[in-house]
Design brief:
single chain; 2 helices
Amino acid sequence: MPTELPGPLVQRENVTADELTELGVDLDRDFPGSTADDFLRYPVLSEGGWFTVVKHMPTLRSVSRIPGALLGPVALASAGLDLG
């Protein structure tokens, strides 16, 4: 029987209409017929490292891309240890 191994879990977060407005997105102009429910925020790995992006899921068009953590969603076991 295969055993499921623990690994990084990529969390996809919903985006609000107010957040889209702050990003400069006008839903009526830029994505006619879409709502805030069509957008998600999640980490991606590209040639430039990890980024947190907001994408329009039906088209996968990015509306925001900011540099993320060095290891993305991977948390080191030693994170938070006080070695002092």
